[in-house]
Structures
1.
Amino acid sequence: MRSDFAASLAQLTAEKGLGRDDLMVMVEAAIASAYKKDFGVPEDRNISVRMDPQLGSARVYEVYAVVETVEDPTAEISLADAQAIRSSARIGATIEKEVTPPNFGRIGAQTAKQVIVQKIRDAERDKVYAEFIDREGDIVSGVVRRTDARGSILEMGSGGKAEALLPLPEQVRSEHHRMGQRIRVYLLEVNRALKGPMLIVSRAHRNFVRRLMELEVPEIYNGMIEIKSIAREEGIRSKVAVAARNSAMDPVGACVGQRGQRIQNVVNELGGERIDIIRWDEDATKFVASALSPARVTEVTIDDTTRTAKVVVPDNQLSLAIGKEGLNARLAAKLTGWRVDIRGDGSSVVEEGTPETYSAASERDGDGVTGEASPEV
């Protein structure tokens, strides 16, 4: 090992925040293990390794217990033989016998290097974990460095030494990020057990919208306004249900902001994704009617048994209530958690004289709602 071992060790411990003594203990233990493996020494043999921190050289010793009668030659030594090694040896003490092989410096150097490299990796991963574990579920920023089959790799953290994976399913299909671009993402998961990137991030998760609104609307951040639910089809449209803790406050107006500036900032961050702010109501009929905004609803009938909301709208509002490819109705179902059946008021009919209807189903999952929609005639 090079004579600058001490300087290199000091530099590594300072840069990576490692304990010098702890690192030396780990290096010595690893060299002892390498010695046993390379020289066919049984695993149960008591081997001790001591390194010179200045030179980086390693010396290997067999450790024996000094006894009157030797029963196990691999672990015990007689008093006479022990005193031949060290004159002060006594019964009951331990003594070390040097067995450093010739040219052992190369093995020791390689082993020490491997241990140090691995320890540095572990320390860096621990540092990343400590930096981000408390930020799980928050918005963080990173720089796009490369893409591969899994998704985009972002450089994050202090010094840019942490890597985050933005998987393909967590990307918005309409967005295209260039190399070197700084973007904001939602930190989904911090996992120290992964061999690859420890940080998993998203721009498609509905809570990305929630956190962006918390940043833009102080009343949400301080708890005066509560986001009750969010339905999102990333890159296209989201609906957000809000309620004020103070009945005198207008939650929708507070979220929209003066001249729409607050919600526009969120829309800009989402690449133009449209956001509907809906007033939440305990009355399911009113909530469902609001969720179908901007369509004007004539009547809502609730069936608690089947969790179905039967909605009647003027025929000229039917396409607006359903939305393009059923988007508006589908989001309303996700937002409210009700199956939404939309029907025209009968002023116009389709084939066979049956009023046109549309059904959007929704089932709650562990973190909100999911749903699917299908036209019915």
2.
Amino acid sequence: MLRSYAFIAILAIVAFGFAVVGLGFAWLVRPKKPNPVKNDTYECGLQTVGNTWVQFKAQYYLFALIFVIFDVEAVFLFPWAVAYNQLGLYALIEAALFILMLAGGLLYAWAKGALEWQ
């Protein structure tokens, strides 16, 4: 039983080691000459005018979350579309239900006005 998980454990160790070695190497070869200009906050190369802690509208975040939801929909439907010829009627009904649930979410967001850009 544990032998079947050995590959996953080895893969996790190699992935973790690869990340640690890469970050360690970057830390070793980085330039180490800090000065006030390098340590200053970067704001597109311009000095900020006024209050820099401007609160953004929640509308932007809602729009981004809706985009992510429908992006994930495409990821879930892609394998289904690739294997469409081998799948039966049951898979077609499941995909239609999945799309209908997401369409219901889209209609709900539309009715609440989350898609209106202001």
3.
Amino acid sequence: MITYDRLFVAGSWTEPSDPELLDILSPHDEAVLGRAAQARPADVDRAVAAARAAFDEGEWPRTAPAERIAVLRRLNTLREENAEKIAALMSAENGSAGWFMRAGQAGLTRQANAYLKAAEEMPWEETLVPSDPASPARSVVRREPIGVVAAVIPWNSPFSAAMAKIIPALLAGNTVVLKVSPENSLSMGFLAELLQRAGVPEGVISVLPADRQTSEHLVSHPDVDKIAFTGSTGAGRRIASIAGQQLKRVSLELGGKSAAVILPDADVHQAVQGLKFGSLLNNGEACIAQTRILAPRSRYEEVVSALKDLVESLKVGDPSDPDTFIGPMVRRDQQQRVRDYIRLGIEEGARLVTGGPQIPAGLESGYYVTPTVFADVDTSMRIAQEEIFGPVLVVIGYDDEDDAVRIANDSEYGLSGGVWSSDEAHALAVARRIRTGTVTVNGASIGFDGPFGGFKASGIGREYGAVGLGSYTEYKTVTL
């Protein structure tokens, strides 16, 4: 039993305004994993006031970039040293399979290192050479921190989402109020401990588990200068409207309904084995999951059969079991949502290849769903257009390459996607035509030096690397 009966406000553990603790339940069997204090608007006000004072009057925004880099490097080292504990905490809270959370720790290191490298190479201040040699003016261009950042993250991959925001925000000299989901109160409480041990100064960061109402209080706060949000497109629209009214800086990493285009010359076995990870990672509760599988009609049944065999081979069960590939959904309402979509697919006339709305036998005590594959799916069906956020795949046939690109782009989303082909140059040519922020070829891992984010309803702005770091800075030009 883990208990966090205090809130991490402005670098210190303080009494919450509401003393009632929330029980954190296991999605596997609904056992109580721990208890944690939850922030209310009064706690947000304290955190924002401290962040405002630390930015306006404190040393952090005015320290040399090298000093900030050293602090964030210590944080990354501490996280690496505690990788097993972090993976176990997140797996227990979220129901994410242990293999996925452990594998993700190396990605967190690469993510942080890319930001640190970008900070070391960032031209924080430079003098521009005049375009007109006859001009006497000299322009000094500075990158300065924006101010107080409200970072709001979802429950499905909390350490990755948190580090993707707090590392660049702090490297740039901002102060941060990190709002995390109640489900992640334990792992994010441990993150707060690591921030304290890393030596982040008093006032510079707070970590607050809180509900949606308290989250809206945070993003609406007049002393917040930038909102950095990861979550659903619906919530993103609401946040964008608030930011627009108040002219706050805003970056949004939102939902997805990504397509995997299997070209006629692809190795189907290789593609399907890659989609085991590209489509079903984190129990399918991933915004980048490639859940629309586009198959050429000449090989359609071959792809459907291979996906059926793959999905039926995956073990569903206790996320702490090393043989488990797919664990439970995070909450009962999420379990019900996914099962309702499976029923909807049947009602819409899609062919149920494997799976279904039934709960897997022997797993009735948790929030489990049966991994499902639909075939004969039309792009007009809701299961082909809406983000299900669970282990449900739809297979859509296409006539030719132009048809495949048209179907891939027939979505309000544009976050991720993939192309499979035996000809890499050909795959790259198709990838260039897909309107989405990230495309992988033949299952390549997403890199962290390049920018990550979405087109269309999948968001505004980019994270990772130099572009992600730059999104937490303002340009100032001083003319001499």
